[in-house]
Amino acid sequence: MVFTSIQFIIFFAVVFTLFHITPHKYKWFTLLLSSYYFYAHYKLEYLPLLVVPTLLVFLISIKISRTTEKTVRKRWLLFGLFITLSVLAFFKYVNFIGDSVFSIVKIFNKGVHFTPIELIWPIGISFYIFKLISYLIDVYKENTEVELHLGYFALYVASFPQLLAGPIDRAKNFIPELKKRVYFDLDRIIEGAKLILLGIFKKMVISDRLAIYVNEVFSKPSDFHGINVLLAAYFFAFQIYCDFSGYSDMAIGLSKMLGYESMDNFKFPYFSKNLTQFWNRWHISLSTWLRDYLFLPIAYSVMNMIKGNRFMKIKVETWGYVIGMFITMFLGGLWHGATWTMVIWGSIHGLFLSIGYLTKKLRRKTYKKLGINKFKRIKIFFGTLFTFNLVTFAWIFFRSESFGKAMNFIGHIGLKTSVKGNGYMLFNLIMVISFIIFELIYKKIEEEQIKVPTIIKLAGYTFFICIIIVLAVDSSNEFIYFQF
After folding, report:
1. 336 catalytic, yes or no?
2. What is this structure's pTM?
3. Residue among 243, 204, 201 nearest 398 (CA)
């Protein structure tokens, strides 16, 4: 059930009604049952793959919390991590690993062939497994209290607005939300509905419409030379942003209508002046997860390993950051998909984040020496432009099915422009420019907390609804991040 489908609207209307008439003591049961039904609706076989790891982590976390001996606690933690990571690795990476190994073996023995294992693909598995991993580590480090109520813990993992593509809320923040007493609050429900409306606009009007052109160009870039291919790359940048941030808006809005606050997942990432700021604004729940559970442990481990080594002339903090960041983004790319194009996408970000860190002091001195700091707005403008183009370049590998197809796409950017598809391309261009202006206005209102008169708000929402009715395309299109 895609959020934008009629089927989901009926489902949510029933859940919303049942939830608000259910006594507080049993609201968790209503939502948990609804969430499991929601997940099983995609494929019944998915359900055990959600329920079993949830139950095991729940029991292991209790064992960790009730054990005082550090060695025993660590063993239980490693056992829990082994279970969760094994589930993720088996269903998501077994064929990728097998194909990669056999590709190497094939160099020496051309008669060897790899036959992929036919597996069901549990939708949203990366998201709920990451929730389980963070919970285990937080309980072990005593950053959160262990949850003794299986129902609330299971609902934290399986809450249907977040289940398929996040946000990846932390247990210490979201479980208390699930436990608080919820009343029928019309203002809160309207706020949630506004976010859902914004998400529908982003998904059905911007993302799904851009997808028509983007899919055609990426499938056959040789038919769309020059500017057509270049714009397809830019259009995909906005397609994936509107698709994923649109989902997040709807997920947060749905949770809000049910009385629960979820973390923000996007904060105008394409207006970032550098790549570090971009990752602080893009898919925030994942980027903070990667920071806390991958980057920091790796960076500290590297620093401890080389501390006191007189042969390492670069500061240990620098080694820690560079190695930690590259490995984190490499694995972040692999998390997004079991393909080498995803690995390249993550590696590009890891490489340029590391370069940015290594050249930070040099750039500051250069800016000061050249007097560039006096022109702050111009500096921010060109920094934002460079960051956006770098991100867009990396998106080409993210979108392409193989490295060869990515290079083929890039190779056609510099060729003579074809006139094929220019009419639709121009419409998309106008739509994207209009969306950028909308984002700029929305950003200014949000950051400066400008109070907008009610009449203008009503006019804006009416306009949004009209635009959705007129320009929306097929609502059955799944969200891009469902595949991860």
Report:
1. yes
2. 0.89
3. 243
